[in-house]
Specification:
Length: 216
């Protein structure tokens, strides 16, 4: 994709989803040239940043930077912007802005200060059973919203502790929608290639069964 095409697509997506588009330079400055790493996955690295919005006010953000513009990364970027840009729920991470300039693809999320559920479960002392129950209920509510309350049903396809972020109150937010699959309201199932993380895959994948909203 050439730079003009990328900017045109970004403008169209931004208008459709009412999102602001940032330039590569703006996000490089916000992250001090991508210095503080928060985490990494198969498609890229997440950095902490500080963005000025609305005059002199500054907000802390998490910037997901795709490490290379391969075909699967481009597909993940478009999918994640489309999916998260149209959903709003207290147990889902919120997409604020993005960058789609030349060869650069970045997604800007709200910053959640308490890391991932995977990190939280490994800390000492261990979380209480009440805290674990409360987090599990929050995750279930987020999944219910995706499966039953969206105009297009959304199957995340990669629910795991590393993709659950915790806010300042240790409330869970489901993140990383790059592998998500969309279903129309009148659609009950669909066929797709296996996607997700080993150890967390639904058993239906191994039976070559269609995925449904009963899956994660």
């Amino acid at each position: 994709m050439d730079q003009a095409g990328g900017i045109g697509a970004a403008t169209s997506t931004a208008i459709e989803l009412n999102l602001r588009v940032f330039t590569y330079r703006e996000l490089a400055e916000a992250t001090e040239d991508f210095t503080e790493e928060l985490g990494r996955g198969a498609f890229g690295i997440v950095y902490k940043g500080f963005l000025k919005v609305g005059g002199d006010s500054e907000v802390v953000v998490a910037v997901k930077k795709l490490d290379r513009l391969a075909q699967e990364n481009e597909k993940e970027f478009k999918n994640e912007v489309k999916v998260i840009g149209q959903i709003h729920h207290k147990n889902l991470v919120r997409l604020n802005w993005f960058c789609n300039e030349g060869q650069s693809r970045m997604i800007v999320y709200e910053f959640l200060p308490n890391g991932t559920l995977a990190d939280y479960l490994s800390r000492r002392p261990r979380p209480s059973w009440e805290d674990r129950r409360r987090i599990a209920v929050g995750i279930a509510r987020g999944i219910l919203y995706l499966h039953e309350e969206c105009i297009e049903k959304i199957i995340h396809c990669d629910i795991k502790p590393q993709n659950i972020l915790l806010d300042e109150y240790y409330s869970p937010r489901i993140a990383d929608f790059g592998l998500a699959k969309l279903l129309m309201m009148n659609q009950t199932h669909t066929l797709t290639n296996i996607r997700g993380t080993k150890g967390y895959l639904a058993t239906e994948w191994f039976r070559n069964s269609p995925i449904t909203s009963n899956q994660k």
